[in-house]
Amino acid sequence: MTGRFLSLKDKEYKDFASRLNQVNEKLNAFNFIDENEKNGKIISVKDNICVKGMPATASSKILQGYVPGFNATAIERLENAGFSVIGKTNMDEFGFGSFGLNSEHPAKNPFNEEYVTGGSSSGSAVSTALIKEHVSVAESTGGSISAPASFCGIVGLTPTYGVISRYGLIDYASSLDKIGFMGKSADNIREVMEKTVGNDPKDTTSLSATISNKKPNKLYVIDNLMAGVNDGIKDRFEGLLTKLSEKDYKIEHIKIDYLEYSVPAYYILSMSEASTNLAKYQGFKYGFKVKDFSLNYNEFFMSARKQFGKEAKRRVILGTFIRSKSIKQKYYEKALAIRHAIIARMNKILKEGFIIMPSMPIFTPKISEVKDISPVEAYSMDMLTVPPNLCGFPHMSFPYFYEKGMPLGAQIITDHFNDYSLLDFLSEWESNFKYKFKEEIS
Amino acid sequence: MEKDEFKRLLKTARIELDEADSVSIEKDINDILRFFDKLQEVSLKDEELAFHPVEIPEKLREDSVEEKNKLGGVFYNAESYRFYFLGPKI
């Protein structure tokens, strides 16, 4: 099936961009909106993916002024297929956040501005919710597509690790980062996915595997993960399971060992990798420039790194500690072993059926309710999105219920390289469920 | 983590903090490390280490000259002078 996208030409686009700018003043979905005329099916792109000639900041002050002179491979392939990028979407700085609040101007939830958007792909979720027939190219490391998709009432697909090239992605954690998509229909997401997958000589971790669509009729619910979920969410999720069982899905409750260790293991690995990836921002090569060449190297480097936000500093400090020789075995190697143990167990289950769960363990919180919570409390909110991300399994969040006007999302996970089965599931779901999108710009 | 160790770590990580951030981040880091210590509950000593979530086949390319790192691209965003990066003293 072919997707349907908004195609705007010449003056039509100018008018569209003007309407988008007006809404953006209120909701902060975009860090940059391109005013130049477009020819093609419009898409937006998360601000940590490089688009030639457009600023790429990853919402960090340290990258202010950085304009890539090249396209990420995913963008190059989409442009060659007739897509046109309208702008760069807001996000948590470098992807460091679950609520979209680690940005200088956080994006606002389109359903209610007092509520969080989820993160880190906050602006991609908002732009997808607002713009007619839209797809945003986003990225997930530990849940950055599922969380905002769930809170903003849209669909978020995170593909198998490696099936989409990471070339041109501003790295957070190289063994975990995955470019993916946010949209409002299975056909649209399928079209952009088909245009972007495949081996890329510029990314040695990209894969040329065949992507299948083996859709099972069994749904596994992981009871030891559900134990930490809010009772209200559990109740609504039970309603979803009832609906799906009426559609001939067989529901089975299971336990998977070691899943309770996935969140600390994920943060250990991601912080370790982030602390090395962020070392390239030294104040003279990309973005922010120190310009005081009388400083010695250490002073110069420290001066540049003052531009990092608080969460980025926290992760660089911890990542540096975890990688130190005397500590490495205790944390880093243990986390790698946990990842291996979980992959083996989930792999076995996913050969037989999908795993299904709520996308987030809580109802969408107000900004005021989470802006001051501790890092450990914030990290714990990723308990449902981390397992498939840590293990590179393709997964998708889709809206299934509206609670007092706010959307709820469920997350479905499948085996490596079986990504299209998620979209087949979504096509079936769409034929029986009426989405409510808050506002549409066309 | 003791205060002195935290100060040494800041130096290694090349992060400078003001007094208020130093106090709060030091506390956060100790909380997060306690959270990470949960992993010590399991042994997994014979478990393989998963450096990647999927197997990444080793890729080789022809041993031939490739045109890479064109000067215009390399210096596109950098501070430079006559095809040299302008950077701090080492």
Describe the structure.
The complex is a heterodimer of chains A (442) and B (90). Chain A is an alpha/beta fold and 442 residues long. In chain A, 36% of the residues lie in helices and 14% in strands. Chain A has helices at residues 10-27, 73-80, 122-130, 146-152, 186-196, 223-226, 231-246, 262-277, 297-305, 310-322, 329-350, 367-370, 375-380, 386-390, 419-430; strands at 30-33, 41-46, 83-89, 136-140, 155-158, 178-183, 218-222, 250-254, 354-358, 395-403, 406-413. An eleven-stranded mixed sheet of chain A has the order 1-3-2-4-6-5-10-11-9-7-8, with helices on both faces. The longest helix of chain A has 22 residues, at 329-350. Chain B is mainly alpha-helical and 90 residues long. Chain B has a domain at 1-42. Chain B is built from three helices and two strands, in the order H-H-H-E-E. Chain B has helices at residues 3-13, 19-36, 71-74; strands spanning 80-81, 84-85. Chain B has a two-stranded antiparallel ribbon. In chain B, strand 1 (80-81) and strand 2 form a beta hairpin. The two termini of chain B are 31 Å apart. At the A-B interface, helix 8, helix 9, helix 10, helix 11 and helix 13 of A face helix 1 and helix 2 of B.
Summarize the structure.
In chain A, 36% of the residues lie in helices and 14% in strands.
List keywords for this structure.
heterodimer, A: Amidase signature (AS) enzymes, 11-stranded mixed beta sheet, 15 helices, B: 90 residues, mainly alpha, two-stranded antiparallel sheet, 3 helices, 2 strands, 37% helix
